[in-house]
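Worked example 3. Consider a protein that binds heme C.
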Amino acid sequence: MEIPIKSISINVLIASIFTFLPLLANAQEKVANQDIQQARALVNAFGTDLKQVLITAIKSEGPIKALMVCNIEAEPIATKHASLSGWSIARTSMRVRNEKNTPDEWELAVLQQFEKRKIAGENLKTMEYAETVKEGDQLVYRYMKPIPIVGACLTCHGINLGDEITDKVKSLYPNDQAIGFKMGDIRGAFTLQKIMN
Ligand code: HEC
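Given these inputs, the predicted complex is written out as C-alpha cells:
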C-alpha cells in the first residue's frame, strides 16, 4: 500500500512537536528559574540593607530620628539594588503608611492570597508568588514575598505606640494605616518586577 507523502510529513511534524515541546518547556522553566533566583537574591539584599539601616538608626539616634531615616532611605536603597539588575523593587501593603506604596490590582490580589495561605498554616519564611503577566504589549515577570512583623517593628507599627512616635507619624503621614500590627502578622510585601521583552 502506498502511503501518501503528505500524511508522512504530517506524522513527522506531529512526532517532532512532541519530541521538542518538552525541551522547549524545559528551556522556559530554566529561564523562569533564573528569574525567581534573582528575585530572591534581591529581596534578601534589599531586606538586609533596610533592616541594617533601621537598626543602626534606632540604636544611635532613637526611633524618632529612625522614623525619618526609614522615611528617607527606603527608596534610595531600593533604587540602588534595582539599578544593578534591571529589576524594579519596592514595598507594598494592604495598610500603607506612605500612599506611594499603595498596591496595584495584581499586588492587592497577591497580598490577599498571602493572608489566605497564612491562615491555612503556611510558613511566611518560605512564602512567595511569581507570575509572568501581560501589561499592554509587554510581558512582565512579577514576584512578591511577604514581610512579617517582628519585635523591632512594633515601636512604629504596633498597637501601643508612644505619644512622640504617634505625633511624628501623624504629622508625616496624615493618612497612616500602618499601625495596630501584632507579632507574626503580614506587614506587607516586597514587590519586584522585570520587563521580559
Ligand atoms: C522607626 C520607625 C519604624 C520602624 C521601627 C519600622 N518601620 Fe516600617 N515604616 C516606617 C515608616 C516611617 C514608613 C514609611 C516609609 C516611606 O515613607 O516610604 C514605613 C514603611 C514600611 C513599609 C512600606 C509600606 C508602607 O506602609 O508604606 C513596610 C512594608 C514596613 N514599613 C515594614 C516594616 C517592618 C517589617 C518593620 C520591622 C522589621 C518596620 N517596618 C519597622 C517606620 C518604621
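Take a moment to read the result before moving on. The mean pLDDT is 84. The two ends are 50 Å apart (CA to CA).
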